[in-house]
Amino acid sequence: MIITILTKNQVDELLQTRITELYNQLNSNIKQLPLKQLVEEENLVFAICTSEDRVAGIALMATYKVISGHKGMIEDVVVDEKHRGKGIGRKLMEKLLEVAKNQKLDEVLLFSGHHRTPAINLYKSLGFQLKNSGLYRLVLS
Fold it and tell me: Which domain, by its residues, includes 118?
């Protein structure tokens, strides 16, 4: 298993298909943006785990600056159901946190559904703490 940061030159139709299939394990109801569009973004870090020409997991971190500092938001952490329990999620998260430290981010945030107990346990083991705040959502599309 190899954990890397995805680059533009790695993106092709086969990889797009594999990542689409993997993401559907997390949520098949969400319309996905094209992979080529994502890797063009300077403020997006896309960690990928490959194993024998398969995509075993992904995790993304968007970075942004606001008055309160330079932050990262981790989204779309998905490990293929056939590869869960092997430490891939941890390695993906560690790769993103390494990038966050190298970019000197002040804070890294993430949201997780309360029902995702294994994911929450992973995040807590990495030092994440539940923040006492409300999350409000407005769907625009």
Answer: 2-125
Count: domains in the chain: 1
Residues 128 and 125: their CA atoms lie apart, in Å, by 7
Whether residue 135 is contained in a domain is answered as no
Is there a contact between 23 and 58 (Cβ–Cβ < 8 Å)? yes
* CA–CA gap between residue 94 and residue 84 (Å, rounded): 16
Q: What does pTM read for this prediction?
A: 0.91
> CATH number, domain at 53?
3.40.630.30
pLDDT exceeds cutoff 80 at 141: no
pLDDT at 104: 97
